[in-house]
Here is the input.
Amino acid sequence: MDATPDDLTFAARRVFHRVPGRHHHPHGTWQRRAQIVIERPGVATRSACPFTPIPARTSRSKGGLNVCGLSLAGEQSFLLVGDSKLVSYPNLAAMVAARVGFIAPASKSYVGADVLGACDLEAATPVDYVAERDANKAPEDRGTYRVLGDTMVLTGKKKTDPALELRRVFVWSSARAGAAEKARAKKLERARDDLERLGRGLGGRYYRTDKQVNDRIAVIASKRRVTTYLHTALGTDPMTSKPTLAWHFDQAAIDAEAATDGWYALLTNLPVDIDASGVFRHYKGQEAPERRYHNFKGPLAVAPMFLKNNRRIEALISIICLALLIFALVERAVRLALLPTVKLAGLWAGRPAKPTGRLIFAALSHLRLVPATDAGPAHIPRPTPLQTRLLELLRVDPRQPR
Here is the structure.
């Protein structure tokens, strides 16, 4: 789950596991959670905030989400941005009670396909947003977005559970719509080929009985995901006694599914002064902490560890988050120094590439530092042209490294 305040991006993830031995705890595996604060430019730091440990095999969606604030200077307003697993009555009720803002996409169990299909694309408001993957494309080739807003009421299982009135923002993405249309055309074509092949084999070695034919139809419908709009009728040829098959795709069902192409719904408790476009932009901001968690589990190679107490867990997390802070600061410094250029020549396999922490540290990994002596100060001997360029962007003088 990720969180985005006005000037910070907060993320809470389970990063370390404390697994007692078989004879130490009757409930088995327990987990510890840590929180990370990530600023908008991509700089990460740590904030100590205890989470109540929960059984590792317990789904977060089945129980209430434990919400806690961060010990930061000044008053902070946090916005949790999560995936569809965040949406459950206990989770949302806990966040509403704690006055924590949230945005999360609703699965079709909360917002059905019939509701999505009823959305009016012409009535939706265009959003001035360009995805990073489309930044270098021509305007006509870029993905477009539209939003609609309304409200919905979410109720709990118990009669005493208060009803939650939430804002619901419908988002239409041209990229999603195009991908869904292509995927549906492809699966219909493949199902059509399979059914025609089945028709040619009726009465042969493998399809002599109605059961064999029905079993094959079930496999095709499941494999090609056309169960909802495939209609079949079996018969018997009076002349040859061989099974016959008539089939067709329900065009009305296909049209109903096509009406939902590109649409998804976001649930939020943000105030109404943030319009639907603003909610959508906040939701799209979740990629910032995701990049840092990629670094956390990738280049920094954070993995589950056995630690005896919470103090050691906090100490190790502090050290790793300090490394993540340096990792992010170096990446940010190089990118800012490169502006308006986006890529650095020779950074990846001798070719231009967008600077990342991993590529920068890989390029600098073979640097040598000669310690200072009575004869002269510390210095970096003979850096390569790429290393020299990186040191220049980082404002490091090879003759007088700080």
Notes: The CA atoms of residues 93 and 164 lie 7 Å apart.
